[in-house]
C-alpha cells in the first residue's frame, strides 16, 4: 500500500481528463451498482452511461472541467498518467461530495483516503459535509463512517433508471472539521 500511496498524485482535473473520469465512474458503477435484491441490472448501468460515454458526453464533461460552475471542483488521483480516482466537490451552504469513485482494481489501497484528505484543502472546513451513496454500497458506507460521516434520516428524491427501477440511496453527513 505504501508504494501505491506514494505514487498517487492528486490534482485539479482539467479538460483532458474528461474521458478518463467518465471511464472511472462507469467502471466503478458497473462493479458496484448491479444488485439482485433491488433488481438493478448491469444493463441499467450501461444505459445510464450511454450519453456520458458518447463523444458528445465526453465533450460536455470536458467543457464543464474547463469552466466549472462557481463552487465546484473536480479532483483526480493519478498514478503516472492514469486517472485512478476522482472526487467532485461542491461548496455552497454546505460541502457536498457529488461524486467519489476509485477504480475497482485500485480500491483498498489508500487512494480514496488520500483523495479525501487532499479534497479538504478545497472545502470550507467550517461547514458540514454531505454525500449520497447507494443503500447497499457497504464498502462506501464503511469508508465514509471511518471519515466521521453518519447516516441522516433525510428522504432523498427518487432516481430511476431508464428501466424504471429505483436506485435506492441514503445521505450521510459529518460535522465541520476543526482547524
UniProtKB/TrEMBL annotation:
Q: Which CDD domains match?
A: NAT_SF
Q: What superkingdom does the record give?
A: Bacteria
Q: Which SUPFAM superfamilies match?
A: Acyl-CoA N-acyltransferases (Nat)
Record GO terms (molecular function): acyltransferase activity, transferring groups other than amino-acyl groups
Q: Name one Pfam family in it.
A: Acetyltransf_7
InterPro entries the record matches = Acyl_CoA_acyltransferase (IPR016181), GNAT_dom (IPR000182)
Instruction: Report the residue ranges that make up the N-acetyltransferase domain in this protein.
Output: 8-173
Which Gene3D superfamilies did the record assign?
3.40.630.30
Q: What's the name of the protein?
A: N-acetyltransferase domain-containing protein
Q: Which organism is it from?
A: Candidatus Taylorbacteria bacterium RIFCSPLOWO2_01_FULL_45_15b
